[in-house]
From TrEMBL:
The gene is rbsK. Residues 2-291 form the Carbohydrate kinase PfkB domain. This is Ribokinase. The active site is at D249 (proton acceptor). Catalyzes the phosphorylation of ribose at O-5 in a reaction requiring ATP and magnesium. The resulting D-ribose-5-phosphate can then be used either for sythesis of nucleotides, histidine, and tryptophan, or as a component of the pentose phosphate pathway. Transmembrane segments: none annotated. Its main location: cytoplasm. Belongs to the carbohydrate kinase PfkB family. Ribokinase subfamily. Activated by a monovalent cation that binds near, but not in, the active site. The most likely occupant of the site in vivo is potassium. Ion binding induces a conformational change that may alter substrate affinity. ATP binds at N181, T217, L218, G219, G220, D221, G222, G248, D249. It comes from Rhizobium hidalgonense. Homodimer.
Length: 299
């Protein structure tokens, strides 16, 4: 079983020919809303990958709440651990440029009201060998409590170090598996401007210090990771991206699902990388997440 403890948002997405520079206004050419939030995105990815998934988090008592949960509910995700709290649902304001790159501002709202007690509740129904997936869009104390409780129960914890907050390096040391992009990994390693050789050396150093499985996503260059003392690499697909906003979350959800399914580490990395590539071919975080059949066909 996989439990995802994290954020649930409504994404407000505007598309432009190019992203604006600071202080600049550019004309948009499209607008859409889509369910999002890193927690919800990763939960939906794991569910579409074919695994049983609990989503734990919070939404508000507003018009966005039902829409924010709609795709999770439609996919058969267990939503019994989602609280409905006073105030608005979390939102993300997203600009997507013509090259598929994006800029995002997140307003936590209900996500900011998730507590350490909620973490205890989420962990309470889990058993040794289950998988807990977390991100950093809910309060730090709740994430820390969830990681500590998971370790005490022998639950495998996967922490995606996104978004990059000041506590990320400290929290990263508490998880069994850490997933980070290049920038997030540099913060974790305390070293900026790494090339491929320096990144691999930092992976080895951190792995020797902590024993953790460390995974670094590299966009179009695939993924590099270390587990049990061995470096692994995997490639996604060669694509022309439409929108990269859901790629990282899709990777995380598919990776967790693949481990839960019993795939070996290398196969899990490859499957997740292909899924992340496919997520770049459609707009929106959750609408772009591929099904297990889509991924299998491309592998």
């Amino acid at each position: 079983m996989i439990t995802v403890f994290g954020s649930i948002n409504m994404d407000l997405i505007a598309t432009t020919d190019r992203l604006p520079k600071p202080g600049e206004t550019v004309a948009g050419n499209g607008f859409a809303t889509a369910a999002g939030g890193k927690g919800a995105n990763q939960a939906l990815a794991a569910r579409r990958a074919g695994r049983y998934v609990h989503m734990a988090g919070a939404v508000g008592r507003d018009s966005f709440a039902a829409d924010a949960l709609a795709l999770l509910d439609e996919a058969g995700t267990d939503l019994s651990l989602v609280e409905h709290v006073d105030g608005p649902t979390g939102t993300a304001l997203i600009l997507v440029g013509g090259d598929g790159e994006n800029m995002i501002a997140v307003v936590p709202a209900a996500n900011g009201l998730v507590t350490s007690a909620d973490a205890e509740t989420a962990i309470g129904g889990m058993s040794e060998g289950d998988i807990l997936m977390l991100q950093l869009e809910v309060p730090v104390d709740a994430v820390e409590r969830a990681l500590s409780a998971a370790r005490a129960k022998g639950i495998t914890s996967i922490l995606n170090l996104a978004p990059l907050i000041p506590d990320a390096p400290r929290l990263g040391r508490l998880a069994d598996i850490v997933i980070a992009n290049e920038t997030e990994f540099e913060r974790l390693a305390g070293q900026e401007g790494m090339d491929a050789q320096a990144r691999e050396a930092a992976l080895v150093r951190l792995h020797q210090e902590t024993g953790q499985t460390l995974i670094v996503t590299l966009g179009g260059d695939g993924v590099v990771a270390i587990r049990d003392g061995a470096i692994s690499r995997a490639q996604g697909l060669k694509i022309e991206p439409v929108d990269t906003v859901g790629a990282g979350d899709t990777f995380c959800g598919y990776f967790a699902a693949s481990l839960d399914e019993g795939l070996d580490f290398a196969s899990a990395l490859r499957r997740a990388a292909v899924a992340g590539s496919l997520a770049c071919l459609k707009s929106g975080a959750q609408p772009s997440i591929p099904t297990s059949a889509d991924v299998a066909a491309r592998i």
